Amino acid sequence: MITVYVKRPHESAEAVEVTNMDELQDMVGGDHEVIADDHLEGISLIVNEDARGVEANNFPITSDGYLDWVYGVCVFVKEDGRSLSEEDRLRIDQFLSAKV
């Protein structure tokens, strides 16, 4: 089991324990895509790209210097597949609070 951080539109992020990729796909509502923000080194974002323009905006990201939006549910994970630490979750909270 690993700890991930789940951010739904208009809600605060919450730590969740998952056991496999099927659970992550269920959280994001289907097939997933892995993206990154230039300001969150070591952390990946799992999103459902089919939600783009269909579900509510969640928050903006900067990827390779370009501004983009995350739509629908977003799951933050460690790039190395380990659980997010408390320090990682605090970094994500600071990142998200700067986006509001």
Sequence-ordered SSE layout with sheet pairings:
Layout: E1 2-7, E2 14-18, H1 21-28, E3 33-35, E4 43-47, E5 57-63, E6 66-71, E7 74-78, H2 86-99
Antiparallel strand pairs: 1-2, 1-7, 3-4, 4-7, 5-6
Would you mind describing this structure in some detail?
The protein has one domain. Helix content is 22%, strand content 37%. Strands 2-1-7-4-3 form a 5-stranded antiparallel beta sheet, with helices on both faces. A two-stranded antiparallel sheet has the order 5-6. It starts with a strand and ends with a helix. With 100 residues, the protein is α+β, with helices and mostly antiparallel strands. The protein is globular, with a radius of gyration of 12 Å.
The number of domains is 1
What is the helix tally?
2
**What structural class is derived from the secondary structure elements?**
alpha+beta
Work out the helicity level.
10-25%
Task: Point out poorly predicted stretches.
Answer: none
Number of beta strands: 7
Mean pLDDT across all amino acids? 90
Q: What would you report as the Rg, rounded to the nearest angstrom?
A: 12 Å
Strand content: 35-45%
Largest pleated sheet: 5 strands, antiparallel
For the record, give the distance between the C-alpha atoms at the N and C termini, rounded to a whole number.
31 Å
What general outline do the C-alpha atoms trace? globular
Which structural traits does this protein have?
100 residues, 37% strand, 7 strands, single chain, five-stranded antiparallel sheet, two-stranded antiparallel sheet, alpha+beta, 2 helices
